[in-house]
Amino acid sequence: MRESEIQMRNSGLTPMRWYRFAFWIFATASGFFQAWQYRFYVEPDGVNYLDVASAYLRHDWPVAINSYWSPLHSWLLAVVFYLFHPSPYWESTALHALNFVIFLVGLRCGEFFIQELLADQKEDGIPSWVLWSIGYCLLLFVSLFMVPMSHDTPDLYVTAFVYLAAGLLLRVRSGRAELRTYIIFGVLLGAAYLAKTVMFLVAFAFLVAAGLRRGTAIALVCFVAICLPWIVILSHSAKHVTYGDAGTLNYEWYVDHAGEAVHPPRVLFMSPEVREFAYPIRATYPPWFDGYYWNQGLRPRFRVSTQIEALRRTAMEYFHILSGQKEFIAAWIVLFFVGSRRLDPRWPVLLQAFAAIGLYAVVGHVESRLIGPFFVLFWLTLFAGLHVRAPRLLLCVTLTVATITVFKVTRAAVLTPLHPTHVQWETAEVLQRMGFAPGTRVAYFGHTSVADYWARLAGFQIAADIQKEAMPEYWSAPSDVKEEIFARLSSFGIQAVLASGVPPSSSKGWQAIPNTPYSVYVLGNPKQ
């Protein structure tokens, strides 16, 4: 045991096992509370993953096999629904319960990564209790602040896979790997790809960092064995060779593209713009469910000017993300300059963080949830590379970081707005009581990035919409324009129109849905 750790134990400070116990109690309580807070909240991505899961359960393979939405999250959701049969009211709660389980798994995987960092820590390096403390703070910060359970995406899965893969990479580089280590390494990278498409490319960065050795070849074979069946199925369904179209589509949306969409959503009315997409995609909200279909004909185009602009935009976003991590920045700077000013980071792991961060920068789109675990790799490898032997300073810095982290996590997990009522379910219930049956086509006026979860719960398909920014033009339009819009919607079998907010008093025929922010306009007999 190191001298500083002996001093810490002799000074009467909390032993590490009690600190770990306190961490798990706080993390579990905070995570559960955050999941419970958002039990009735579902994002647009979550609706699509739920749609895919439902397609698997009814064996609707053309809908289930989707080149944009990675399969692992939907597979596990389908298993949960098959085993527990949650009612529509509790469906979103089941989704967040699964997220909570993955959250706990991710924390344990993070512990494994810290253990591997410490396994070959140099004697004059930073004390292990400091690295554990900073590591626990980072795990909490990322899992509850950067990748919170309000998101219904597989990013929490990625945190677990990244931590495990990074830990195994350290074991490989230190020469402590066995045959099973390489097998697990390759399988984990393959599973990470099934969780999120971008991990297909990041996996190769991990494999390259593992070095040229027989074990790496074994890991590569295992990785290919996991990925190849899905790539074959996906390519056959999409009718083009692909490991997933998320990256391509995001580059077209956020950087640049050439060509014209072959079959974009159809414009029924120009002013205000009314889009229709009743067919051929079967989903709650077709334009977001199958981005490849609606954007088919576009292709990524590289231009220096647009690429530089994308890099500038993502650099600003990275700066914004880092500005929320001031406590870790300040702690590292203080310890670096007080210590020997010598840094020995684990470069193979640090390069994985740079690879992922750079990849998202090239695509032109980044969010904190996308790169959360890579910031754990980034900071922990930098802290592990420090050489500091100043127990009082280390204790002061560690306590400061822990206090700030607990405050941030508490605010994110406990002080977030409650969702005490299931507004989306109540909306679906009212519409069903009005006689609208599952399969009904509806339009939504005032569309935003808020999920259309009410439509999924009722079994409806949103077949047309008006975006929120065009709604003032719609409300102020003459009555004959509104009647013409309704007539064109009716011709596509649309039976009702929902709008967010309360329509102006001059708009006749709208009915407010009690206790919700929605109003409905009936276009035809819902019993038909």
Description:
The chain is an alpha+beta fold. The protein has two domains: 251 residues, no CATH class; 143 residues, no CATH class. It has a seven-stranded mixed sheet, with helices on one face. A hairpin with a 5-residue loop joins strand 8 and strand 9. The radius of gyration is 26 Å and the shape is globular. The N and C termini lie far apart (77 Å).
Structural class assignment: alpha+beta
The N- and C-terminal alpha carbons lie at a distance of 77 Å
Provide the low-confidence segments as ranges.
1-13
- Principal-axes geometry comes out as globular
> What would you report as the Rg, rounded to the nearest angstrom?
26 Å
Distinct helical segment count: 23
Overall pLDDT score = 92
Approximate strand percentage: 5-15%
Give the beta-strand count.
9
**Which range best describes the helical content: under 10%, 10-25%, 25-40%, 40-55%, 55-70% or over 70%?**
55-70%
**Which strand order do you get reading across the main beta sheet?**
2-3-6-5-7-9-8
Quaternary assembly: single chain
Major sheet summary line: 7 strands, mixed
- Tell me the number of structural domains: 2
Map the helices and strands.
Layout: H1 3-10, H2 16-37, H3 44-57, H4 61-64, H5 71-84, H6 88-119, H7 128-146, H8 155-173, H9 179-195, H10 199-210, H11 214-238, H12 246-254, E1 257-258, E2 266-269, E3 274-276, H13 286-289, H14 291-295, E4 299-300, H15 304-323, H16 326-338, H17 347-363, H18 368-384, H19 391-413, H20 423-433, E5 441-447, H21 453-458, E6 461-467, H22 471-475, H23 479-490, E7 494-500, E8 511-512, E9 518-522
Parallel strand pairs: 5-6, 5-7
Antiparallel strand pairs: 1-4, 2-3, 3-6, 7-9, 8-9
Helix pairs in contact: 2-6, 2-7, 2-19, 3-5, 5-6, 6-7, 6-8, 7-18, 7-19, 8-9, 8-10, 8-18, 9-10, 9-11, 10-11, 10-17, 15-17, 16-19, 17-18
